[in-house]
Write a structure and sequence with these properties.
2 copies of one chain form a homodimer. With 233 residues, chain A is an alpha+beta fold. Chain A has 7 helices and 9 strands. The first copy, chain A, has 2 domains: 145 residues, Nucleoside Triphosphate Pyrophosphohydrolase (Alpha-Beta Complex); 65 residues, Arc Repressor Mutant, subunit A, CATH 1.10.10.10. The interface between A and B is medium-sized, with 33 and 33 residues. The structure holds a DNA duplex (27 and 27 nucleotides). Chains A, B: Its EC number is 3.6.1.55.
DNA sequence: CCAATAGTGTCTGTGAGACAGTATCCG
DNA sequence: CGGATACTGTCTCACAGACACTATTGG
């Protein structure tokens, strides 16, 4: 019964990589090639290795799956999931990380045999393996909250972007429509949120928009609060 | 080298139990009786057991250390700490939980040989074993944020409390002074925050104050935002 | 009466939301 | 010129903070 006091287990690190593509919030998923849940969609992840920090493991998985530099991207710990029966192979506790990426040209330059692809969150939110549906739900809610209180929305965009691009991120992630004029005033007035680059982008139609880059601020004071506290299933 | 792919480790669950006592934010700490960091202060915790969920383990530790029912108290997962060298005994990853308790008469009715006691956060914030200083910092910051956006402050109080008691919680946790009149209006007007019991409490001096119990709401709309974004080390 | 705490009413500045109006591109 | 998008100005309402004032106890 010393086993009760000293349970040995394996620790997995799973990734929820979110982006905004084609006007939708999308998540990077893989199709499982092996044993449990074979053929099912799942979040990318892997086991923690010796000598590795949790964040290091998350960054390593991120590179393996998307060829993205985890040290540059936004990457934050989400939560840890440890229900005894969450993995049929045995006791596996999973630390989930939330990553935010701009719209990448091709997601899967990975080396793994498993195919990786972007999928709209709405399309896969109930079809993932393990307890990944719950993890994805928690990740989306975290991202929505981060948009309220931090400058995270700029990470969804590329290195330079217009105020309209930034507004588009908010509208897609929150699933709302925002007044472009009020949003512009709000964002420009918030110190450290965005910095003008001096250049402009000429759209197919309409007046050219000023291009910005992300500012130095991390937190938003005051925050951009959502009107309704998100009551969508 | 299969060891690199399948690292086995032990998972600990550590608790940050906060309360407001004697006008200070205090945390429950134990004095370590055994091997690493013997005699040093540390957060209470223990290893995950077979068949146990993470939250179950946290509730079990909570009962062992404080004889409090973890199912009733506020208990939320804080974060997971997994630096390779965080525990001299070997690879141990720790899932930290944040618990909020009202001012208890005696903290240590626990069975463990280790002595448990309340200590002001300020007094122990740099003297804890392992990486518990960092965990404590994160926990306090989480609690401060929770007070802004949830009705968590009522959990610091007993089953019934006055508006002044509730204000006292905010003032101690945030380390600020609040206008009693504005605070009262704000709290009473927020639907679901507090419910009148119809009874009153007679203080040593002054007008009797109405007693309330916690309301049904969990989230605060709108939130009670701190003025300054906490720049204390 | 005074001291002390509880609670109400009022003013003011700030910011969000609504929306008219102006600016600048393409065709 | 019209169509479309970017951006500015103005109004209104709600709320946070400051603070005068009233209410209710004990001594």
């Amino acid at each position: 019964m010393t086993d009760r006091e000293h349970l040995w287990l394996r620790l997995a690190v799973d990734l929820v990589i979110l982006t905004v593509r084609d006007g939708q919030l999308q998540v990077l998923v893989i199709e499982r090639a092996n044993d449990p849940y074979q053929g099912r969609m799942a979040l990318p992840g892997g086991f923690l290795r010796a000598g590795e920090d949790l964040r290091q493991a998350a960054e390593r998985e991120l590179v393996e799956e998307t060829s993205l530099d985890g040290a540059v991207l936004h990457l934050e710990q989400l939560a840890t999931y440890g229900a005894p029966d969450r993995d049929p192979r045995g006791r596996v506790v999973s630390v989930a990380y939330l990553a935010i990426a701009p719209d990448l040209p091709i997601p899967t330059a990975g080396s793994d045999a498993s195919r990786a692809c972007w999928a709209p969150v709405e399309d896969v939110r109930d079809d993932l393996a393990f307890d990944h549906n719950q993890i994805l739900r928690d990740a989306v809610e975290r991202a929505r909250t981060r948009l309220e209180f931090t400058t995270l929305a700029t990470v969804f965009c590329g290195p330079t972007f217009t105020v309209g691009d930034l507004r588009h991120v908010y509208e897609v992630v929150w699933d709302v429509t925002l007044d472009p004029r009020n949003f512009s005033r709000k964002v420009v007035q918030t110190p450290g949120f965005i910095e003008p680059t001096g250049t402009r982008r000429i759209p197919p139609t309409g007046r050219p928009a000023a291009l910005y880059r992300r500012g130095s601020a991390e937190a938003l004071h005051p925050p951009i609060l959502r009107a309704s506290p998100g009551t969508d299933g």
